[in-house]
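ugh ok fine here u go
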Amino acid sequence: MTDFLPWLIELIQSVPWFTRNLLAGLAIMLETSLFVGLAIPGDTIVLVASVGVQNFSDFLGLLGFVLLGSLIGETGGFFIGRFFGERIRGSWLGKKLGEKNWQMADTFVETRGGLAVAISRFLPVLHSLVPVTAGMTRMRYRVFISWTAAACLIWASAYVTLGWLAHSSYDQIASRLKYGSFIFIGVVIVVAVLFSLAKKRLEAKAQALIVASQETQEKDA
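structure:
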């Protein structure tokens, strides 16, 4: 373990910065795309790429690529929904996503508008469906991109910062403590658990908003 972590960090840093940043940006672009996004672990790829960040200008470069990839992916989803939404939803692949998930996205966007767009960036499945659903509504692209840009900036900053801080923390802990690698692994596990709990809480909050909106719609019907 004490040899593996330095080897991994050196391996990531050995990748040319442009290649590393481009791969991270592409991964996020694909993650926010319909169908493909459900199978691409974009957040994991960004975290791994962030470990290779060596200074603040490098940090800004990776953040820029990740943010650009996010916006391109979200924009693509929006215009896919605007021009091909109903056909895609009725297709074989659209049905494989589940009508329940489509209805959740419908309700979320219809009742919460731009807020739904922002929150969906942090949620599984919905982060691919909501941009498409938003494109199928009367929501203007200007409104959509304003909300999604804010959410993507928060998301990208959090992940890139987490990876960079993990690398910096390892350098300090490993150089000062005998069992620094093991302490670092313990800290990473704790942070990962807290991060996962925060995401689950956000998911639960979003689900509660969707359920409340569905109940309101049923009463008004």
